[in-house]
Amino acid sequence: MSNSDLNSGETFKESVFVVPTEGMTIADEYVLLKRLGAGATGEAWLAEKIGERRHEHEIIPQVVLKFVPGEVRRDNTEMEKVHSAHLSATNLEHSNICQFHQPIWDARFGWLPVMEFIPGTTLREHAHITLKRKLELAEVVRLLTPIANALDYAHERGILHRDIKPANIMVTPEGKPVIIDFGLAAQIRSSMSTVSRTSTAGTPAFKAPEQWKPDQPLDAKTDQYALGVVAYELLSGRVPFDSDDPFTLGFQVVSAPVPGIAELPNAVNWVLAKALAKVREERFASCTDMMRALESPAAYVQEDKQPEPVLQQVGQQDQNAATSVQPRTSSGQRDTREWGAGAFIGFMMGAGILGGPFYDVGNDVLCSIMTLVGGSIGACIGAAIHKEFGN
Q: Measured on CA atoms in the order 49, 54, 56, 58, is the torsion positive or negative?
């Protein structure tokens, strides 16, 4: 099945009154059992293959059907991208990656991604609802090392996840971690951004610095950053950067030092800071290397001849005083990063001021032009101000 099959003559006429419900038959192949979840990337339903049981104890295979948001389904170009992402994921065969099956066609809903059903709970539920505590370092290493291996396996085949977070990692009743929505949720979010003209690509708290910058290519180090955020959250109970204001959050991710976890050894904080480095080249060579360092942080720091972490008090994020952990950098590197922070803030403000009015009235051409002009002017002003007063 190729992308061209999207236009192979199948007729898709969506009705706004048709929504998936329990007991509904899909594509004459599956019957919907229950909704597993719903959000910005659509609805996920548990479904069972239609067929008579030969005996009452026979288990009928169950799968997960993904109902893509209607805005994306109605856009052939964006739906083709989602379809392509799904087909790419069907080539992944790893015990810690949810298996993707061939998509199915339903006249009411169009193409539906079909995925293996993974019983259990999400990693977020496993860590905070089931256990009701922060995880110990050994448990974090146990859970995330197979995830790191699975990510490296996919990266070697040129496939990125782009939305690694605890909610996209399942933990089976036997304790086995499995990545779900490999590349699919990220593409749906990206397509939603395109069709709705809103920024929904990626989960903000887990987005790497390069994802906050326009036209920056993504690579394996982008997934590594997100995995580093997952490790940080499991160890501390919070993400390193968080804000309801996307501009504030973007600034923190791009330029603010990583807040250290006060109750953990400096070597652990150093490993996390390296995984969360602003410049991707400063991160680990692979996700597996990151987890090896986290498993033996003191040995890693010594063997790699890394300098002692620089600890700075950055105020209180909760009841414990937080510390900032960063490898030593030259004054030139700091100047460059501070200039970049000012330019980033200036670009966002300038783009919003000049491009916003044209966005509101729906003039896409002028909106794009004025956003670029305003962003460029704002970047220059922001960089100059930050350089003058940032020190």
A: negative
Residue 117, token pair as written in the block: 């059903």
Q: Considering its fold, how many domains does the chain have in total?
A: 3
Q: Mean pLDDT across the stretch 112-131?
A: 85
d(CA 294, CA 385): 39
Structural domain span for residue 251: 121-328
The residue among 82, 116, 150 that closes a domain is 116
Q: What is the pTM of this model?
A: 0.75
What are residue 25's DSSP bridge partners? 31
Cα separation, 298 vs 222, whole angstroms: 25
Supply the pLDDT for residue 343.
53
User: How many Å apart are CA 87 and CA 360, to the nearest integer?
Assistant: 37
Report yes or no: 170 and 123 within 8 Å, Cβ to Cβ: yes
> How confident is the prediction for the chain on average, in pLDDT?
77
Q: What is the CATH number of the domain that holds 197?
A: 1.10.510.10
User: Which uninterrupted H or E stretch holds 63?
Assistant: strand 62-67
User: Are 324 and 341 members of one domain?
Assistant: no
CA–CA distance, 275 with 224 (Å, rounded to integer): 7
d(CA 94, CA 374) in angstroms, rounded, equals: 47
CB proximity list for 388: less than 8 A, separation 6 or greater: none
**Exposure on the CB side of residue 207, measured as CA atoms within 13 A:** 24
What digits encode the pLDDT tens for the residues 60-78?
Answer: 779 999 998 878 788 788 8
DSSP 302-364: HHTTPPPPEEEEEEESSSSEEEEEE----HHHHHHHHHHHHHHHHHHHHHHHHHHHHHHTT-H
Q: Check residue 13 and give left, alpha or beta (phi > 0: left; psi -120 to 50: alpha).
A: beta
**Cα separations in angstroms, 288 against 149, 155, 221, 281:** 6, 12, 12, 16
Which pairing describes strands 177-179 and 259-260: parallel, antiparallel, or unpaired? unpaired
Last-in-domain residue among 97, 116, 135: 116
